[in-house]
Amino acid sequence: MTQLSIGNAGVEFGATTLFTDITLTISAGERWGVVGRNGTGKTTLFKLMTGELAPSKGTVARQSGLTLSLLGQHRDFGTATTVWEAAAGPFADLLALEQSLAEQAHNLAEVHDEATMARYGRDLERFEREGGYTIAPRVDAVLQGLGFDAAKARTQPLEQLSGGERGRVGLARQLVAPSDILLLDEPTNHLDLETTRWLEQYLQEIDRTVVLVSHDRAFLAAVVDHVLHFEGGSATAYTGGYEAFVAQRLERRLAQQRAFDKQQKVISAQVDYISRNLAGQNTKQAKGRRKLLARLPRLSSPIGEDGTMSLRLDVDERGGDQVAVADKLKIAVQDRTLIEKFSGRIMRGDRLGILGPNGSGKSTLLKTLVGEREPQEGELRVGNSIRVAYYDQNLGQVPLDVTLFEAINELRPQWERRMVQGHLGRFGFSGDEAQRKAATLSGGERARVALAMLMLTRANLLVLDEPTNHLDVETIEVLEDAIEGYEGTVILVSHDRAMLRALASKVWVLHETHITEFDGSFAEWEVVSEERAHAAAVRASEEVALRRVDEKKRTSRREERPVGNNPKRALKQAREKADEAEREVAVLEAEVTRLTKTLDDPELYTRSNGVEQAHKLGAELDKVRVRLDRALAAWEQETDSLESLERTTTAS
Asked: Quick check: is 431 in a domain?
């Protein structure tokens, strides 16, 4: 069923045309990824979908009664004072009704008139019909998935949250809100790897339509089944996931190139014929061909890499083999310890990816490495021959009070004006744009200036803190290619899994004030993480099963009479069987705990054969789990028999 369709839509702002001729049909349950360079109109498309903006030309048609939820609409949390209230904001009316029902129920103890009873019945029926009983668990589940403590969130003040945390609350609010279409604009911006994986699974499982703008290629590949690509002043729709889109886009560009080249050959031949024969014997034919050539519809040159940032990262000198050393390092912020007792080293040529939850200390570690802050204990030193280039995720390295020309000229005072202009042109700033001040730039534009400055350092150590945050997919691919061809050492903090998979050959994992070094690629670490997640899931499921059996034992009723010739003997045998079954469960549960603890131990993955061992332990854990499931079923059966005999014996 078609929910929303856009026909030949275009948007103009005065004399500026943002895009034209966009045609798109979205059906229920589809998951669309919207990609393209910054400034091409992706966010404006969302405004057309919601009706906030009308197209300058073309049409936008929505299904009757269609509801859309846009993250940008929920940055203002109204009167909410706690995290939970902010996330549950779309259900404010139902939550107020729940409070009213509680008050009405209390008053019914004293007032029994028919009108009061009727009102209570109507309100209760509405509360149930609109899903009131499912609100709390839904909000709790989403908050938990996005990295909040659901119980703590009920009292956690909203005003104490950082900007990134408020972004996650806004995302939670949007995800729980009832709507037919979810419009997500860069939903992974404030998420770490773990919460991004949770969001992927959440979007895969919901039955709503999803349209998302994202630069996270791994996230797109996991979620979307259609892609809308903005380029060349319009947008093209592709059927299939992100990887299928990449292949189809390449084929389309090749076909366009072949058609363009073929037409150029025809035009060249005709022009040559006209120039040779216009004044000769074949003048009439030449003039005829000139008229035909003038009426020939010209194919545009294929849209490809034109306008893409041009980045190359070189080094001036090789540098020493030992790039950086940490010795008994402790890093703290105020009274909170982020890292303690860490010793490790980074060697020349390492491509180090640093992982960890938001707030675990990744950026603080980088600031300590580049000398912007001092460690509390121990040391973190860089080799004498090492020149460091630092990309700050907050883009603080870009001076805001000077023009772009002045920022580059300060780094290369010996360059002529044309050389400075040419360098800025490589990053998309041509002509008068070189005279803009950085304070007037968007986040994506400032990021390109930061990369333009980074390119001039020619350092042998790149320290990159979330370099993809403000970049579009095409620019990220250029950056990735530049780092891949870089001959120095790279330290990378990023939540872009596609970039980490392509670049990180070594991993440090920050967790609970400790750093675990994994001597393998990020792709290998992902395999290990799946084993650990599997172990945690096994442990959680077994805990649920054990609680179910224990609860059944505690709540058993004793009402029936005994049967059989010797009830005491039967009771004794039943107890022995139940005890034996319980011992079997305890043995297998201990084995599950042992295997899970081993898989959870970060030290396992630092060994040369750690990944292979993790696979074997994971397979063994699966087998033990099957045996434990059978033992739990047997224990439950024996417990049921024992409870039945106990009830009848007690009754007699």
From this structure: yes
What residues contact residue 201 under an 8 Å CB cut-off, 6+ apart? none
CATH number of residue 464's parent domain:
3.40.50.300
- Burial of 325 by CB count in 10 Å (0-12 exposed, 13-18 middle, 19+ buried)? middle
> Of the candidates 248, 262, 386, 244, which has an alpha carbon nearest to the alpha carbon of residue 324?
386
Domain of 286, in residue numbers: 250-295
Helix (H) or strand (E) holding 72: none
HSE-up (13 A, CA, CB side) for residue 427: 26
Burial of 499 (0-12, 13-18, 19+ CB in 10 A): buried
Q: Is residue 329 part of a domain?
A: yes
Backbone angles phi, psi at 286, to 5 degrees: -65, -40
- Decide if 99 contacts 80 (C-beta within 8 A): no
* pLDDT score for 90: 84
Domain assignment of residue 77, yes or no: no
Distance of CA 137 to the CA centre of its chain: 23
Amino acid at 13: F
Query: Mean of the pLDDT values across residues 321-341?
Result: 92
Which pTM value belongs to this model?
Answer: 0.74
Chosen domain end from 518, 545, 570: 518
Q: How far is CA 62 from the centre of its chain?
A: 29
Q: Which of 36-40, 290-294, 531-535, 608-612 ranks highest by mean pLDDT?
A: 36-40
**Burial label, 276 (beta-carbon count in 10 A; 0-12, 13-18, 19+):** exposed
Cβ count near 428 (within 10 Å): 20
Residue 350: which of 369, 324, 385 has the closest Cα?
Answer: 324
256 in any annotated domain: yes
Last residue of a domain, one of 518, 542, 569: 518
- The total number of structural domains that make up the chain: 3
**Contact partners, residue 317, CB within 8 Å, separation at least 6:** 385, 387, 460
Measured CA to CA, the distance from residue 228 to residue 236 in angstroms comes to 6
Cα 280 to Cα 268: distance, rounded to the nearest angstrom: 19
Q: Are residues 457 and 556 in the same domain?
A: no
* Phi, psi torsion values for 229, nearest 5 degrees: -110, 120
Tens digits of per-residue pLDDT, 246-280? Answer: 899 888 888 878 888 888 888 888 888 888 877 77
